[in-house]
Amino acid sequence: MTMMISPDYYLSEYENASYAELLKLKNKLVDDIASFENTLGKNNFESTFQPGSDVRYQWNLEVLGKLLILLQKAFNREYEL
To answer: Residue-wise over 31-54: b if at least 16 C-beta within 10 A, else e?
Structure first.
């Protein structure tokens, strides 16, 4: 069984990342989320990979929610008007 790190711990590595870096991460998460949603109903969540795709989906959603706060702060820091 593989353990996933917490979203907060994962994002702690990005606290001082640039807006561009965070944007790339956001886009990857959105792509991963969309990929899962596009196959929803076509798979039965069984996977040889651990954790399963449904767990990764939920983790990605949680990370995305928290990432948006970092993205907003980075945008304001770099593009303060």
So the answer is: ebbeebeeeeeeeeeeeeeeeebe
Structure tokens at 63: 């990370």
Q: Residue for token digits 């449904």?
A: 54
Cα 39 from Cα 13, distance rounded (Å): 30
**Three-class SS of 10-61:** HHHCCCCCCHHHHHHHHHHHHHHHHHHHHHECCECCCCCCCCCHHHHHHHHH
Coil/strand/helix, residue 3: coil
**pLDDT greater than 70 at residue 81:** no
| pLDDT tens by residue, 35-64 | 999 988 775 555 556 678 889 999 999 999
Cα separation, 10 vs 52, whole angstroms: 18
* pLDDT reading at 9 higher than 90: yes
